[in-house]
User: What shape does this take?
Amino acid sequence: MRTASPQPPTASAPSAAPPGARSRVLPFWANPRLGLVIVIAALVALFSSLSPAFLDPKLTLAPLQADVSVYVVVGLAQLAVLSLGHMNMAVGRMAALSTFAMGLAYDRLGVPLLVGLAIGLAVGAAIGALAGLVIAKTGVNSFVVTLALDFGLLGLVTILYTQATDGVAFAVKPAGLAELRFDTFADYCAGELCGPRVPLVVPFALVAALGVGLLFRFARLGREILMTGANPVAAELSGIPTHRRIVAAHATSGLLAALAGFMLAANNGAFSASIGESFLLPSFLAPVLGGTLLAGGAVSVLGTVLGATLTQVIYKGLNLLQFSLEELKLYIGLVLLAALSLDRLRAVLAERRAVSSS
Amino acid sequence: MKNLVMKNPVMKNRALKNLVRTNEFTLAVIAIVGFGALAVATDLNLLTAGTMDAFLRFLAVPIVIGLAQMVVLVVGQMNLSVGVLTGFCAMASAWLLVEAGVPAPFAVLAALALGALVGLVNGLLVVFTRLNGFIVTLATMTILEGLRYGVNGTGTYQGYSPGLRALGGASVLGVPVVFLLAGTVAVATALFFRHSVPGRRLLASGGNPFAARLSGISNDRALVLAHTLSGLLAGVAAVIVVAAFGTVNASIGDDLLLSSFAAPIIGGVALAGGVVSVTGTVLAAFLVRLVDVTQAQFDINRRWVDLIIGAVVLGAVLLGRARDKLTGGAR
Assistant: This one.
């Protein structure tokens, strides 16, 4: 899922070849997604041979799928602005503010589960749009704007929770939240036929990934966002309203952050102030591992899904092997560094081959 | 640009006007007014020796950590590992003092060397992998988090080297030694960027890498040097932490990452590179500390501080934009 930049590929400068042209020329093993699939498969095999509990459907696989789902959506929230070459440093706090809105709606208004979710998504999209608006209108670096927003929301969310609850979390449990947390499709049978042992939150992530994938591949809006990311001046000259596209991308990011917050709240069983605290680093890990660059103009949704899966498989596996959370970080960092360096090496080798064969 | 020969009063007047228009001048005015207002609001309690001492003592780390971020911003890079590296260096030197029984001077040197070494690795990784510095330091930050915890788990080191702790708690004429150290580091950094050849090269490379390369400056070397300096400054911050706080554990550095960006950005350093402002960074750290102290003095919810700092960061950047527009974009 990559875009082609407008300029034609030049044989004399292979390193400047646009991503679209590169994907046509390069051999299949230069695709970073394939490497991720192999690494994930190898790690699953390794962990299940070291600890048979890794393949236990109820203890490991179901929670693993639930975790992967959350972090896929977190990664997509970051991907939405990486498409522009922007960053969203407030991705976790946007999720926190949105889940506060959801918790408030359930607690004070007693709305059904999905209505509360819709309210939260609207709040997330609004705060994202606000960030986008400031960036587009002032031209200030997105990193600075969202960093300032993160500081601001960090304060605001805690103050709001202190005002509206006992300070930590909403006590309310809307109908359906417990099912979302504990049930899998295996608990729902039509006669003899029962569903697979897949948690109920997984479809949320699938819908999000499909939606974002379709947006960037087929929708005019998504294509125009990518063009704005690839070359803002050229996009502006081609008649694309770049300011509105920037706002749209950031609103999408806020919306997805809100969805991730809702899914984490469902997994934890509570709408609490701590939601989103752990989102920032994974939000970059998943898209970057999947081959999305920070430069903008190209995204990989499938890569983001695989990147999130890889990090969560490592967490879960090392966790089963009794590693502490802090030790895990050491290995996650090393894997990230190794994966990125190998990816770089692969790209260089593939480019050389493409040049020598042409 | 500022060193124009001032021949007549008109030129002098213009130089004064230019000074008034600088970001640093605005920050200095805000800092003085804010400090004065707080002093009056607390019935001059702020000016008592004990309060002033604490004010300056806890200003030392924010200044140095802001400078550590600034030196990589100069070449258009970011260093996400700066806070965690400070924590790791602090834990490592405390381990040397407590577990290995190394004399204090060596532990201090080891912390500085370790910081510079990690910075060097960051720089080399950026140069050799051609990856964005943001991603490289994101990875090394994650690794360092693990290492920082690996030194002593959740345990706390305390009661090490009485000499070092006494130095950290000492004051000269009412000014804490650690603050003097931070001030010295700031002056050295300013001199480095203003008068030394490597410093000017960093600025040239950050401002326009292409032009710098054509002038015979190695951009790769500039990247490595900037990251090494950033690591070294994180090591200095670690030494201040070990000396002034008296206890060290694995949570040190967690709250430093965002504030390391806040100081240079408020201080007017551009993320795109090529701009340096040591005065601005120091003044911004002072302002943030002022907000902190106000919160403590009036017993305000700790969280309002974050809200205010967020507003200040954005406000400062927008103000800079507006001023650039008014003065026709001249920097």
